Amino acid sequence: MKTILALSFLALAACSSTPKKAPLTTVPHVDLPRFMGDWYVIGTIPWFVEKDNVGTMDIYTLRSDGKIDIRYVFHKKSLQATKQEWKATATVVNTKSNSEWAVQFIWPFKAPYLLIDLSPDYQRSIVAHPSRDLIWIMCRSPEMTETDYAAALEVAKNQGFDISRITRVPQNPKN
Question: Exposure winner among 73, 97, 106, 149, fewest CB in 10 A?
Answer without folding.
Answer: 106
